[in-house]
Amino acid sequence: MEEKNRSLFQTIQSDIEKTLRNYQFKGFIFEQGQILKISASVLIAKGISNSFCGEMIQINRDSLAFVFGFIANDLVQLILLKEGSPVHTGDPIYRTGKPLQISVGRSLLGRVVSPIGNPLDGKGEITTNHTRNIENAAPSVMKRKPVQEPLHTGIKVVDSMIPIGKGQRELIVGDRQTGKSALLIDTILTQAKTDTVCIFVAVSQRSSTVASIIRTLTNKKAIQNTIFIVSLAEDPASLRYIAPFAGAAVAEYFAAMGNDVLIVYDDLSKHAEAYREISLLLRRPPSREAYPSDIFYLHSRLLERAGSFDKSIGGGSITALPVVETLGGDISQYIPTNLISITDGQIYVEKHMFNAGIRPAINVGLSVSRVGSSAQTKAMKKVSSGLRLELSQYNDLKAFTEFGTELDQETKARLTKGEQLVEIMKQNDLNPVPIEKQVILLFAYQNNFMKNIPLDKVSFYQESLYRHMKTRFPRFVSILETKREISPTLEKALARVIEKFSQAFMKSENEPV
Amino acid sequence: MNPFELQQKIHTVKNIHHVVHSMETLSTMRIMQLRKQADTRKAYLRELETILFSFLHIVPPAITQNFLLQPTKMKQSLLVLVTSDRGFCGSMNQQLLGIARNHIRSHPTVVISIGKKAGNTLLKEGVPVVGMIAKMLEKTDLTFSQNLTSDIVKGFLNQEFDSVFFGSMEFRNLISQKPTVKQVLPVVDQSQKYSSLRYDYESVYLLPSPKKVFSKLVHKYMDAMIYSILIDAATAEQAIRMISMKSASDNAEEMIQTMQKKYQKIRQEKITNELIELNND
Amino acid sequence: MESTKSTASDEIVSIEGSVVTIRFYDTPPEIYDLLHVVDSEGNVLLPLEVEEITAENEAKCVAMGSTDMLSVSLRVRNTGHPIQIHVGPDLLGRVLNVFGHPIDEKGPLPQTNMTSIFPTFPELYKVEPIAEILETGIKVLDLLAPFPKGGKVGLFGGAGVGKTVFLMELMNNISQVHKGISVFAGVGERTREGNELINSMIDGGVIDNTVLVFGQMNEPPGIRLRTPFTALTCAEYFRDQEEKDVLVFIDNIFRYIQAGSELSALMGRMPSAVGYQSTLATEVGMIEERIQSTMKGSITSIQAVYVPADDYTDPAPASVFTHLDATVSLSRALVELGIYPAADPLDSTSKMLKPEMVGSHHYEVAQKVKSMLERYKELKDIISILGMSELSDEDRMTVYRARKIQKFLSQPFFVAEKYSGKEGRYVTISQSVEGFAQIVDGRCDDIPEDLFYMAGTIDEVWERFKK
What value of ipTM does the predicted structure carry? Predict the structure, then answer.
């Protein structure tokens, strides 16, 4: 038994030396302890005082916990990760010598795993060559490069007026049932044709919800680039707590190889609740709203692991889209406020817009992207310039429509154009719009070719125009796709084509059936 | 009140503020447009007046007396009362009703009410309101004005009434408007004022005929006068509304400030109390 | 990290988040002493800072790094002193962490001339009592919110208002004209922003006279808490040993307070109003009191202040305000008008703007400028709709002059030359005052307002007019 253990531990030791910093073990002492107290998913144990923070501890034969802290009298605080057979006081616990890790590798693509790497999709074991610590330091200030590449979401109102760049953290905030998750799915679908790796971190979700998302992505052929890291509502708080960090670790693996990664956290409100649950069970002093006082640090260190990275660490990027839920649209609550001050902007989804049928229900006035426009393609920058201002002026003018029947022509024209803009920005779920299509559409709008299109025909016009361009002028479309800017010659050509199309469209619409 | 409710209230008042501020701005915009029209119209009116009264003496009285002869006793007077369709214009309509009632007390009067506000009230008071025209002041339309004028003149010439007065707000400047009753028919003779401009008999020929010329001229004069009155009234309404909306807007702003201070206080107290509770467990 | 063979005899009793309790056996450590958690070879694994001595030979410490992988079996050694950093002229152009170690990959700094990052207040006789103005060369500041030398300026304004360029121009002017030094402390803000600042500073050519210290929001609270101390220590070196004028930028002072509140709660201390630490005022004082002029030089600070829930009465910003001598408010509205620097002339203030401090002429001109801009603000709505014709002659004149003032407040920056194509301008205080006096008195009434945009002195405007 001793011999077997010794060689086992030697293997573990060399693993440790590979993955841990600053440690040079001269020997490894086998340690075994036992559980003294159980309080939901929090355990107090003794006998493993040589263990370290974050170390994985095995309980019995099939349960797993990790070390969260140490308290007086050589007692160790453990958080239960996985309970095989029920755990009782007195049960033996064994040190593994390994910190919380997740296996990382390309074989994760298209798979659904738990935060500690166990497959959940029934498609068999996942074999990788690497593991990565779940907690990692974010790259320092010298290891970054400016956010300059766009990350297209396929959502018109976002890509034009709240643009996101690769390496940015953009918060999605709003009440429940306002379409926040739909935005995430559309963004993932838009990455399907690119090399971007997508990671969906589900925190405390219902299994039916997750299953339906997986189904959608599979049907839309977007699953091959996506990794799901799932913690369900019924999972212990620990899994819900580490899920985002596990996701970040997987993201870092791919980014270090030069990939662009998109990671979505759905959602961090539940993450904060899981951390609160653990902290309260550990009798850590509660702060505002009973959250532990380092709840800011919980999210700041998580989200700072996203960014645009220097060549010296791979040159990749991790774009993060965390989601946070508000109550009654109140963004001055503790967790949303923290997240807003951490991220590089927020997309604010509003309940009454959602209920009024405006989808996506994004309030552009309250939303902001601190990085975005420097990461827009030249073409998009050109056709989206002034749109934010136009929209906000339209919203101001709308108040007039309630009183002034007598508006001058100019004002009336502005109102109509504004209504049209709102109409253009609407889109259905699961229908991400490729960026070239957006550019063409906005080009038509900005140059007033849509002047006479009635509101109820705007949607049909959009589809027809794009179809027209793709079939008759595919060259233009592909230039926009590849070159991403509109040269003066292209501009003139586009203008001619779109004007002609618009006129023909109006004529055919007005002709009696 | 909990901070969230207070935030809602602040939000509501902010919306109200936005609305009244919009109305204030809209009125200001309308005033600008109306003033442009008013200036040209007033100049035109003055020109007509000058021409009319500078050769009135050339036209035989038999032709002019229909328009100019003041009846000794007004048997039936027509009062066209120009009010607003909408509220939010201070005491304007009350003031107009006041002068209307004064006029009605002095002469037997029938009333045409332009604008819903006055007509309904007067009807209830038993005043013979023979016409009610709504949505006019917003338009201040030349065509409407001309139609109104020709109806009035026709009625006057048919002796349905022997005098026509307009009760309306006279626009002096942005902060001063006065409810005025102005006699429109019979035309008030202002020849004295223009005596220096009198033409000599010998130097003027009225073609095709004095009657035709006079008739055309006096109709145009009536048109211009009534249109001027209507524009003035419209401008006055907008000015009063602008001021009353501005004051509402200022009040709303003040309310918002007070509530925001209160909100901050409550927010802070809530967090402090929450922590005191948590720490006492 | 250093490693010595001296015995580490203290033990770790508990590790709870960032709070580590140790048990000592010999002499008790002092508060703020730096302890090292070492491995069996004596290599330093994690620094700790002592915050409290509790009974029974135990001390509560704050981890100055992540406690991940930390074990109770490790030993602790007292260095006998608080965090110390090397100071010297070789700090210039370097990017440091809270320990004074470079993170810019340009090589290590010598471990000589070490000084504690904790305050040693200038002895009273060394403090310069007379207040003096620090000329910035930026018209809107010098005229309406003059900086007090050795004073504290609060900086307000959200994202996208030109904060970085604004800070860099101040750094440029202090080094070029005043032959002074800048120290930048990135406290608890986004690492991305720190990276952008460094790149901008290299591009703008201002990095050589600057020291940068970072402890951003990816770091645990202990590091965020002490980062400003490290920055101030560097500043004090340049003030006292090299007798320079130093500009210290802190972005964002709220994060310092926030870090303190995170730690206070973790240490089990009772919270005070609105959940902040009971030691809030003291902790703020520990930073603010170090920003002083002495006989030898001065430290003037510009602190970005985040205001939670836009509530200026929140204890955190409120406690910073009591120390501020001036505030600069960057406004998005001005950015949208293309007016850079986007400092709001009506919302930026200074205690120095008094006749006794700036002289009665400067004071009067400033007051006239402000009242004209105020009046213009009131009239703006009416003008945009009714046009100027509705105004009285006096008001119309005010508006024409106010618009010129507004344009004249804009100024081309040296650090923005590459982007704007315009040469930068440094304008002395007397030139600024003279320029605005001319506009206010009506001497420039014939000059079209566009000529005032992005100009330096008023003479330059006259030059343009003559052409």
Answer: 0.88
